[in-house]
């Protein structure tokens, strides 16, 4: 479903998009700031991206698809570090002033220029296989919860627990390298409620009274995140008669699941009758959002996807990149959920919450 057509705004954003929508949540600078001098917030975020260079370099060194990978990984680290350092001195360099979209885009550009297309491929495949083997058990546990409100809360907790599998966070990449991730342990160890943004009770109350016609879910990471977090929730929506569109990235970025990968995952989870653990999945569609970053600018999506999503009455943005660092305050024409875990101290500080705090923002149209 790759498209050569020019991108279009996501049709469910409140219009006029030009004046009401701003993708990045955290302002790195204000109009009154000196345009030639990096602001303290810009420096803080540039440092965050600098801190992640070693873990990206290590992944790149071990990419079997790239000849001379170690030498090219070294070049990536040098080039990207030089760009970031230059932005500290001159925030207008490299297409600045910086925001989280530009900092992610520059990192991807340098990797791709050096031939690195998918440095997290191996770990994504391993985590997908591991999560697939646990899928049945997770949905079975959800199905055993008879109370609608309690079941949906359990599904939401599953999304948040799955979302911790994020190798774009330097701290989590380190934890992951040491111990791997246990989905069930993460479910049980979520920070206590109320979360830093916590509209779960309002959503539970709506869930018991209403069902939606069509939901669009912007997915995030591979592995436990999409397979044990998002898919059980999508399956529950399908069971309630909602059509579901899962929107995934066009191209690889960090350990985010891509459109072709998600198509393959869904096909493996379906049985011969097209059911996912007993639930008819004929109303489940995987779409290519046209995005190629771990954050998303909704003013620019693939036109085919926009057409498919046009009449949805629920939009779910999931993950720190798509739902918190971008789009937390994006206003939709329909009901919307922004859900994710806070995995950068800088985001926790901005929101006034704790590291590994949870965001569940529900807005009714």
Walk me through what this model shows.
- Its cofactor is Mn(2+); Ni(2+).
- It comes from Urochloa decumbens.
- Keywords: Hydrolase, Manganese, Metal-binding, Nickel.
- This protein has 365 residues and is α/β, with parallel strands linked by helices.
- Helix content is 47%, strand content 11%.
- It has two domains: 37-113, AF1104-like, CATH 1.20.1700; 121-363, Rossmann fold.
- It has helices at residues 17-20, 40-51, 53-61, 69-89, 100-113, 121-143, 148-162, 170-179, 183-188, 200-209, 224-239, 259-269, 303-309, 320-325, 345-351; strands spanning 197-198, 214-218, 243-248, 275-276, 279-280, 284-288, 314-318, 335-341, 358-363.
- The strands form two sheets. It has a seven-stranded mixed sheet, sandwiched between helices. A two-stranded antiparallel ribbon has the order 4-5.
- Helix 2 (40-51) runs antiparallel to helix 4 (69-89), helix 6 (121-143) runs parallel beside helix 11 (224-239) and helix 7 (148-162) runs antiparallel to helix 11 (224-239).
- It starts with 16 loop residues before the first helix and ends with a strand.
